Amino acid sequence: MKSSEGTARAQPIYLALAGELEASARALSPNVLFPTEDQLAQRYGVSRPTVRRALSLIEAKGLVRREQGRGTIVCPPKFERRLVPPRSIIKDFRDQGYHLDTRTVSLDENFQADPSLHRQLAGKGKGGVACLRIVRSVADEALVYETHIFQSGLLRKIDLARIESESLSKLLVEGSGLEIVNSRTIAEIEPCNAEVAFHLSVAVGTQVVIQRFQDQLASGRLLQAGEMHYRTDRIRFSIVQNGSPYADGEADLLFP
Question: Which of 61, 92, 119, 195 has its CA 20 to 30 A from that of 236?
Answer without folding.
Answer: 195
